[in-house]
C-alpha cells in the first residue's frame, strides 16, 4: 500500500515524521482509545498509523484473547473487527457464553433504587441496603446495611477521589455511597459501613443531587445537596470531621412551596444547582454565592406543565420530563430551547438523555419514544417509536449503542439500536423454569456490557446480572441487517467509548 505523503519540512530539521513506521506504531500502542482518536485526526500520515493492524491487534488480543483468530478473519481489518466486536458487546447482540448470575433474598416493598458499580450491586428494600459482591464464589455474597430507620428514597454513587474524605484510603476509581431516607437523615457509606450521618432535615428527605457541587473547581469543599418534603434544599460539606455530621450543614435554601422531586448539578458551572418541586416549579441556585440571605442564592426560575418526573443537566442545558412533555432549558438565559409533548400518552414513567447526540428518550404507557433536541419547531414529533411492552416503561437506559426498556408488567427487557430503533435482543428478567419466583422488571441498571435487573414479589426479591463482554455468537435479524441510522454524525475512531 502506498504510504501517505509526509508534511513538508526544512532540509535541516528533524521531527516525529523522521521516525520509522514501526517505531511510531510502538509508541501509539501506549495511547488510550480517546488519545488514539485525536492522534488519527492530526494528519493523513498519523491516521494511517492509528488505523494499522499493528495498533489494533494488541488491543483486540488484550480485550478478547480467546476470540482473536475467528473474529479477525471475518473482518476487512483488525480495527474493523475490534469495532464490530465492541459494538456487539455493548448492544447485547450475543447469545452464547453470556456470564449470568442471580441472587434471591427475602425482602418486602418495591424499590427503584438500584446501582451497578464495578464489582458490586447496591439495591434497597424498605429501610435496608443490600450490597452484592459480583465476584463472590458463593460464600456470603450479600451484605445487609440496616442503619436507616425508614424507607430509603434515593441512592447515589460518587467518586471518592473527588473529595478529601478518603484521601488516604481510596483508590483512583473507588466510589462511596450516599443514601437519603424518610427517617430525616442522609448517610454516607464506605466499604459496607456507615461513615457519616448527616442530620438537619425535620421531614423525610426525598432526593439527592446527581453529582457533587463544586466538582472540578479549585475549592476542595465539595457539597452534596438534598431535598426535603418541606420544599427546602440543604447543602452538606464533605469536609466535616464529625462522625455524626452535625457541623456538615452549610446552607438551607428556601423558595419552593412543595416537596423537592429532583436535584441536578449544572455541567458548565458546577456551583449551580437545579431543583424541581412536585408543583413543577424549577429554581436555579448559585451555591457558591457569598450572600447571607439564602433566598438570594436563587439566580433563575421557570416552570413546566404536568407532574414532574425528573431533571438532568448537561453542560448549559437542563432537560425536564413532566407529564407527557420534554423541555430543554438553557441555564444561561433560562429560555426554553426545546419543548415537545407526546400525543396519546397519559404520562411519562421514565426518561434518559444522551447529550453527545442531542437525544432524549422517554418511556410511556407501552412504548419508548426517541426525541432529537436539534429538531425544535412548533410541534416536534418523536424521531423513533419503539413498541413492544404491555405496561408502563418504568425502567429505561440509553447510551450511544443501545436503548434498554423494562416494565413491571413484562417478564423481559427489550434492547434497541439507538441510531435506528431496531430491536436487538429481548432479555428475560426471571429465571427459566422457576415460576414461583417473582416476574416483572421493578428496577434496572446498565453499565457498558453489563445489565442487572430486579423483580419483586410479596416476599422474595430476585437480582439477575448478565455480562456480555466475552459472549459469542452474534444474534442477527433481517431488521438488524437493514438498520440505517436516522441521525447524521461524523464517525471517529473511538465514537462512543467515553460515554
Automatic annotation (TrEMBL):
Task: Tell me the SUPFAM superfamilies matching this sequence.
Answer: F-box domain, WD40 repeat-like
Please give the InterPro entries that the UniProt record associates with this protein.
F-box-like_dom_sf, F-box_dom, WD40/YVTN_repeat-like_dom_sf, WD40_PAC1, WD40_repeat_dom_sf, WD40_rpt
Residue ranges spanning the membrane: these are none
Q: Which UniProt keywords apply?
A: Repeat, WD repeat
SMART domains attached to this UniProt entry: WD40
Q: Which Gene3D superfamilies match?
A: 1.20.1280.50, YVTN repeat-like/Quinoprotein amine dehydrogenase
Would the keyword Repeat be found if you checked this record's keyword annotation?
Answer: yes
What PROSITE patterns does the record point to?
FBOX, WD_REPEATS_2, WD_REPEATS_REGION
Q: Where are the WD repeats?
A: 218-246, 253-295
For this entry, the protein name equals F-box domain-containing protein
Species annotation: Stephania cephalantha
**Source species taxonomy:** Eukaryota, Viridiplantae, Streptophyta, Embryophyta, Tracheophyta
Amino acid at each position: 500500500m502506498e504510504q501517505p505523503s509526509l508534511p513538508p519540512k526544512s532540509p535541516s530539521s528533524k521531527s516525529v515524521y523522521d521516525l520509522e513506521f514501526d517505531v511510531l506504531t510502538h509508541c501509539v500502542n501506549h495511547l488510550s482509545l480517546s488519545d488514539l482518536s485525536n492522534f488519527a485526526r492530526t494528519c493523513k500520515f498519523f491516521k494511517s498509523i492509528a488505523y494499522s493492524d499493528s495498533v489494533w491487534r494488541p488491543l483486540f488480543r488484550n480485550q478478547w484473547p480467546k476470540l482473536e483468530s475467528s473474529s479477525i478473519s471475518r473482518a476487512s481489518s483488525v480495527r474493523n473487527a475490534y469495532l464490530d466486536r465492541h459494538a456487539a458487546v455493548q448492544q447485547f447482540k450475543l447469545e452464547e457464553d453470556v456470564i449470568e448470575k442471580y441472587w434471591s433474598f427475602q425482602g418486602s416493598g418495591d424499590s427503584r433504587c438500584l446501582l451497578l458499580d464495578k464489582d458490586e450491586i447496591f439495591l434497597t428494600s424498605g429501610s435496608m441496603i443490600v450490597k452484592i459482591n459480583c465476584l463472590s464464589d458463593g460464600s456470603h455474597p450479600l451484605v445487609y446495611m440496616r442503619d436507616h430507620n425508614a424507607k430509603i428514597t434515593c441512592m447515589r454513587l460518587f467518586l471518592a477521589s473527588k473529595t478529601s474524605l478518603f484521601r488516604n484510603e481510596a483508590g483512583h476509581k473507588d466510589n462511596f455511597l450516599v443514601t437519603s431516607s424518610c427517617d430525616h437523615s442522609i448517610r454516607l457509606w464506605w466499604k459496607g459501613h456507615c461513615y457519616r450521618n448527616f442530620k438537619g432535615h425535620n421531614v423525610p428527605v426525598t432526593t439527592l443531587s446527581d453529582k457533587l457541587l463544586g466538582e472540578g473547581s479549585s475549592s476542595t469543599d465539595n457539597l452534596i445537596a438534598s431535598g426535603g418534603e418541606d420544599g427546602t434544599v440543604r447543602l452538606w460539606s464533605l469536609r466535616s470531621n464529625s462522625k455524626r455530621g452535625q457541623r456538615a450543614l452549610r446552607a438551607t435554601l428556601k423558595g419552593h412551596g412543595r416537596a423537592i422531586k429532583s436535584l441536578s448539578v449544572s455541567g458548565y458551572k458546577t456551583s449551580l444547582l437545579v431543583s424541581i418541586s412536585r408543583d413543577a416549579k424549577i429554581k436555579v441556585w448559585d451555591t457558591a454565592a457569598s450572600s447571607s440571605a439564602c433566598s438570594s442564592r436563587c439566580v433563575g426560575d421557570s416552570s413546566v406543565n404536568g407532574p414532574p418526573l425528573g431533571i438532568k443537566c448537561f453542560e448549559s442545558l437542563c432537560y425536564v420530563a413532566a407529564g407527557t412533555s420534554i423541555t430543554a432549558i438553557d441555564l444561561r438565559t433560562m429560555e426554553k430551547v426545546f419543548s415537545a409533548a407526546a400525543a396519546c400518552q397519559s404520562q411519562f414513567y421514565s426518561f434518559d438523555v444522551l447529550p453527545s447526540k442531542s437525544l432524549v428518550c422517554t418511556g410511556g404507557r407501552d412504548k419508548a419514544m426517541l426525541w432529537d433536541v436539534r429538531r425544535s419547531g412548533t410541534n416536534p414529533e418523536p424521531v423513533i417509536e419503539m413498541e413492544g411492552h404491555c405496561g408502563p416503561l418504568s425502567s429505561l437506559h440509553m447510551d450511544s449503542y443501545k436503548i434498554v426498556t423494562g416494565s413491571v408488567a413484562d417478564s423481559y427487557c427489550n434492547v434497541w439500536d439507538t441510531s435506528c430503533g431496531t430491536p436487538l435482543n429481548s432479555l428475560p428478567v426471571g429465571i427459566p423454569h422457576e415460576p414461583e419466583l417473582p416476574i416483572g422488571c421493578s428496577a434496572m441498571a446498565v453499565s457498558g456490557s453489563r445489565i442487572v435487573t430486579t423483580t419483586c414479589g410479596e416476599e422474595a426479591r430476585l437480582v439477575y446480572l448478565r455480562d456480555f463482554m466475552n459472549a459469542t455468537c452474534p444474534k442477527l435479524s433481517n431488521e438488524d441487517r437493514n438498520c440505517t441510522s436516522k441521525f447524521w454524525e461524523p464517525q471517529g475512531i473511538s465514537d462512543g467509548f467515553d460515554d
